[in-house]
């Protein structure tokens, strides 16, 4: 209906035959839309806004930024008007968010610091304002948590982080003045930042839909089962209070792996947490040269360890790994390229390239293109329920990966049936790499064959389908409000 009316009006004004797809693009371009249409000429409701919130988007690159950029681009293609709310350190000059209106209100980030999950430092439930609850574990447990809170810098204490985060979002929402047809996505959710979100929304009169996306595990198998059950119970109790405050009818929860969705659903919430695919940027699959996939392998294979080396990404294992394969590096079988501190590479050891932790988006993707094998030294218990965006970026390029067993990475590789190799213990990696080099032509061929499958599973449009974000141009903005 919207497209038909717009097409009729444009043709009448221009005396030209205008294809429907051109009208679709006009609707997506607000400036053109305003130039051709007077408010009284058509009864077209304003296209709704999609407000994407992530305090972790800072600088000009990284996976937080990549996730939100892919989602806002896909939403814009469906007629939504994306609004991106980032940390104040976000640098627009670095590119990204070309289709979104960007505000940078947040002065705090990494709210998962005080999560009850595996990445956080909370041991008891909290109020919406961040105070430890005496009813959880008794007065002694609450006092102990308060002491832990007080040991941190004032700006990083839970109550202060919630207040600053909530005030920042509240100020932005009051400027945006969302309508009932708009939607908000908290792109990096956890049980702690949900407190700040609820504290914000209770001060906003307009009730718009709220979606929350979870990435980080609540428990891991390294914890005793009693501790896991206690954690899930606490997260469930605390999150139920958040849902009660926001309204069960307007909030929806999503997780980027099936395993994580199952963990949240074990917390006994009044709403179901649904698994959705983590989006990744499509990339051209390039056939490597004969020096790497010919009958005889002449060149060293480039092992790429992408991502800033943190504890969960195996930072403690890097030096040991480099020592274990030093002979394979010095003999020219492999070369290593990784991100981190220059101290990771010994000056006397050639064949090791160390790049900065922060790369611009274009530099990062160009670097991944140089990989022959993507190597992951990740701690498997930390990735049991956690997706790896880096692994997806390797697979969509047709690059084979070597991953640890007992986690989402190995589960995904087994589900695909090919595309790399799995190790049970890091000590197995040198021997596994030797076999990978010997069979590299077939290994790369298999990886290239599954690249299209991975790209289709994890395209941003598929993620929006699972989020239930419709094409408002095709269906009409009034349908969305309903």
Helix content: 40-55%
Number of strands: 13
Structural class: alpha/beta
Mean pLDDT: 84
Q: So how many helices?
A: 20
Quick recap:
The chain is an alpha/beta fold and 482 residues long. Helix content is 42%, strand content 13%. The strands form two sheets. It has a seven-stranded parallel beta sheet with strand order 3-2-1-4-5-6-7. A six-stranded parallel beta sheet has the order 10-9-8-11-12-13, sandwiched between helices.
Structural write-up:
The chain has 482 residues and is of the alpha/beta class. The chain has helices at residues 2-14, 20-28, 30-36, 63-77, 138-151, 158-176, 193-201, 225-246, 258-265, 290-293, 318-324, 326-330, 361-368, 389-395, 408-416, 429-438, 440-457, 460-467, 472-475, 477-481; strands at 49-53, 81-87, 101-106, 183-189, 209-214, 251-255, 273-275, 301-305, 334-339, 352-355, 373-375, 401-404, 420-423. A seven-stranded parallel β-sheet has the order 3-2-1-4-5-6-7. The chain has a six-stranded parallel β-sheet with strand order 10-9-8-11-12-13, sandwiched between helices. Helix 15 (408-416) links the parallel strand 12 and strand 13. The radius of gyration is 25 Å and the shape is globular. The model is unreliable at 1-7, 26-45 and 477-482 (pLDDT under 50).
Q: What is the fold's blueprint, element by element?
A:
Layout: H1 2-14, H2 20-28, H3 30-36, E1 49-53, H4 63-77, E2 81-87, E3 101-106, H5 138-151, H6 158-176, E4 183-189, H7 193-201, E5 209-214, H8 225-246, E6 251-255, H9 258-265, E7 273-275, H10 290-293, E8 301-305, H11 318-324, H12 326-330, E9 334-339, E10 352-355, H13 361-368, E11 373-375, H14 389-395, E12 401-404, H15 408-416, E13 420-423, H16 429-438, H17 440-457, H18 460-467, H19 472-475, H20 477-481
């Amino acid at each position: 209906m919207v497209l038909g009316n717009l097409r009729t009006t444009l043709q009448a004004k221009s005396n030209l035959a205008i294809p429907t797809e051109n009208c679709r693009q006009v609707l997506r371009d607000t400036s053109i839309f305003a130039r051709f249409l007077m408010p009284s000429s058509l009864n077209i409701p304003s296209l709704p806004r999609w407000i994407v919130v992530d305090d972790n988007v800072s600088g000009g690159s990284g996976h937080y930024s990549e996730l939100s950029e892919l989602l806002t681009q896909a939403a814009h293609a469906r007629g939504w008007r994306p609004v991106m709310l980032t940390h104040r350190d976000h640098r627009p000059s670095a590119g990204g968010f070309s289709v979104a209106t960007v505000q940078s209100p947040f002065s705090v980030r990494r709210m998962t610091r005080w999560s009850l999950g595996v990445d956080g430092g909370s041991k008891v439930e909290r109020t919406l304002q961040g105070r430890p609850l005496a009813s959880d574990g008794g007065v002694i447990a609450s006092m102990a948590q308060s002491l832990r809170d007080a040991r941190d810098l004032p700006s990083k204490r839970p109550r202060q982080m919630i207040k600053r985060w909530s005030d920042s979002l509240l100020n932005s929402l009051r400027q945006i003045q969302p309508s009932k047809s708009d939607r908000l996505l908290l792109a990096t959710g956890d049980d702690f930042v949900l407190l700040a979100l609820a504290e914000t929304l209770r001060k906003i009169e307009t009730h718009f839909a709220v979606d929350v996306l979870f990435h980080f595990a609540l428990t891991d198998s390294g914890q005793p089962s009693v501790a896991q059950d206690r954690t899930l119970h606490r997260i469930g109790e605390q999150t139920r209070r958040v849902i009660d405050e926001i309204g069960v009818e307007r909030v929806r929860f999503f997780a980027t792996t099936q395993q994580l969705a199952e963990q949240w659903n074990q917390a006994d919430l009044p709403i179901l947490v649904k698994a959705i695919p983590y989006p990744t940027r499509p990339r051209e699959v390039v056939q490597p040269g004969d020096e790497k996939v010919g009958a005889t392998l002449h060149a060293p294979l480039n092992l790429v360890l992408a991502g800033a080396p943190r504890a969960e990404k195996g930072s403690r294992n890097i030096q040991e790994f480099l020592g274990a394969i030093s002979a394979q590096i010095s003999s020219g079988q492999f070369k290593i390229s990784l991100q981190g501190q220059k101290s990771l590479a010994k000056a006397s050891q050639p064949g090791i390239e160390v790049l900065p932790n922060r790369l611009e988006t274009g530099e990062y993707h160009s670097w991944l293109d140089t990989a022959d094998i993507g190597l992951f030294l990740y701690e498997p218990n930390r990735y049991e329920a956690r997706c790896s965006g880096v692994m997806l970026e390797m697979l969509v390029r047709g690059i084979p990966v070597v991953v640890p067993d007992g986690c989402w990475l190995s589960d995904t590789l087994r589900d695909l049936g090919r595309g790399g190799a799995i190790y049970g213990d890091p000590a197995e990696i040198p021997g596994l790499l030797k076999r990978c080099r010997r069979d590299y032509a077939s290994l790369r061929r298999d990886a290239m064959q599954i690249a299209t499958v991975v790209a289709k599973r994890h395209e941003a449009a598929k993620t929006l389908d699972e989020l239930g974000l419709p094409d408002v141009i095709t269906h009409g903005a009034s349908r969305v409000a309903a």
